[in-house]
Amino acid sequence: MAFVGILNAFADRRVHIDYAGDPLKEKERVQIERMMDYQVDFYTLFGLGDSLRVKLTVFNERSEAMFYLDTMGVTKIIPLNTANGLYNSGKKEAIILEMGKDRKKGLSVIYHELSHFFTREITCVNPPMWLMEGLSEYFEHCEVGKKGISHSMTSYEKGRIRTMYMLGEINLRTFVDADRTLFMKKQRNDEQYAYVLAHALVTFMVENVSRQILGNLIGLLQDNKDKSKVSEKIARVYPGGFETFEKDFEKLYR
Ligand SMILES: [Zn+2]
Prior knowledge:
Structural class: alpha/beta
Bound molecules: zinc ion
Number of domains: 2
Mean pLDDT: 90
CATH class of the largest domain: Alpha Beta
């Protein structure tokens, strides 16, 4: 409907981005802002507040990014040799490490890191890693086109999941309950395992499961007094419980 489009075009932006570091091209900024509107529309379903503000610091050169991170004391905390970007939740700042090399890839990294900002906003407490990284992977794999925004999983990712099933490597219960340490260990030791599986899980949740169910799950995750495991929370909201959740996911990706 054209009318809606006009309204959106003039509506105030719900999220304000403070740009810092190396300048982005005007066209890139437009793409980022369109992606932010898209993410805001999505995250609003789960109780996103008003007046959101996030900082986006972009470095074309990795060495300059490293120097900047060093002054913040970040390099010591996480191994950064393979990262393309990171999100600092305390400062509400997304930092992009190497935009100069591949601008298109750089934009995807921006979508990924800014999604961490929104996920933190809606979950308040520490969200489960598969949800946190899965949502970011989801938006990283979105492309802003002339007509709209489209998401896809790469054929590498789809093949990787099929291989995991073939090798009997998938235990969804352990995976959704995994803490950060276990999640990152899986990622390091087992070729992209954690991010690919998290991406597939979130894609399933976003594209195949009703918003109502996803909303109910996020509602349970927001309740930090409820100490039950994530798999138990999924069992509570998913019709048929966790076993059906596992089966439905497997049907789609095996
Ligand atoms: Zn991430």
